[in-house]
UniProtKB/TrEMBL annotation:
Annotated GO MF terms: ATP binding; kinase activity; magnesium ion binding; ribose phosphate diphosphokinase activity
GO cellular component, one term: ribose phosphate diphosphokinase complex
Protein name: ribose-phosphate diphosphokinase
A Pfam short name: Pribosyl_synth
EC number: 2.7.6.1
GO BP annotations, alphabetical order: 5-phosphoribose 1-diphosphate biosynthetic process; purine nucleotide biosynthetic process; ribonucleoside monophosphate biosynthetic process
CDD domains xrefs: PRTases_typeI (cd06223)
Keywords on record: ATP-binding, Kinase, Magnesium, Metal-binding, Nucleotide biosynthesis, Nucleotide-binding, Transferase
Organism: Saccharicrinis fermentans DSM 9555 = JCM 21142
Catalyzed reaction equations: D-ribose 5-phosphate + ATP = 5-phospho-alpha-D-ribose 1-diphosphate + AMP + H(+)
InterPro entries xref list: PRib_PP_synth_CS, Pribosyltran_N, PRTase-like, PRTase_dom, Rib-P_diPkinase
Kinase is among the record's keywords: yes
Enzyme class: transferase
Amino acid sequence: MPPKAPIKIFSGSSSRYLTEKISHYSGRDLGNIKKLNFSDGEFAVAFQETIRGSHVFLIQSTFPPADNLLELLMMIDAAKRASAYKVVAVIPYFGLARQDRKDQPRVSIGAKLAADMLTAAGIDRLITIDLHADQIQGFFNLPVDHLYASSIFLPHIKSMNLDNLVIASPDVGGSKRANTYAKFLGTPMVICHKSRAKANVISDMRIIGDVKGKNVVIVDDMIDTAGTLTKAAYMMREQGALSVRAFATHPVLSGAAYENIANSALEELFVTDSIPLGQESEKIKVLSIAELLADTIEKVYYYKSISNQFLI
């Protein structure tokens, strides 16, 4: 039996493009919400239909600017004040996730702060994809459905039928992810060991493993300036790799990222639509997460298991 509470799906302004696709796959109409803008930059949100007693899903990635997070918080607050039965935040890209620990004196833990704000605003559940650090789930004292883009990436990698395939991690921190891909595909793995002079600046990089005569696929959770990725691709080709491709869930792509990718040794870069691309690129291909999220929303609503969403 379906729940008595009706389901309502709403989109924040930054993820409208994705929510429309989710609405299509789920076969449900997109809810009507309005963002009111003041001349000084202040804004407010208002639901344009009743949500009293409804199971409300609010979809919004929280990439910069910070207004995207604030808008989501205001949507949550408005839903609670309008007597929604349940409020589920669907955050395809969870911003501030790189700030998951105190790695130097006198710094904030931005991911924990964001989690606290979402909890205080009143969410009952969180659905997200490929957190930069898995332990962020523990920042919430409520259910977190942490999905993985591997359920989309792995079938695509298999369909490419690449001979002498090797899975690579762009850094030591991503070795667990790369190792899981490699085990699933039955291939070897290599690791890029890097050291940074400061954020987004690499001082040194080494390839650990053999890439000569191999078709390399680099897997990562996000790509920002593309400095690490493009340097790794160049070094792998220098060491005899036949080709280098990359799969990264979240295309942050800031600074000179598009130029770096265009001028790189990468054959292709596959990303999801958790964040909209800032510009088109011949090398960048988008694999949509809309169907994955639509299916997860339906299963959460009907209290069904989502374990089959995880290929790894």
